[in-house]
Amino acid sequence: MIFAANFKTNHTRASTRIYMEALKEKIVSKKAEDSVYIFPPSTALDAFEGNFTVGAQNAYPAQNGAYTGEIGVEQLEEFGIQTILVGHSERREMMAETQEKVAQKFAFFKEQGFEIIYCIGEPLHIREKGFESVMQYLLAQFEGIDIAYDKMIVAYEPIWAIGTGRSATVDEISSTHRALKKAINDKPLLYGGSAKPANIKEIISIAGVDGVLVGSAALDVEKFSEMVLS
Ligand code: 13P
Question: What's the rounded Cα separation, in Å, for the pair 152 and 115?
Answer without folding.
Answer: 6
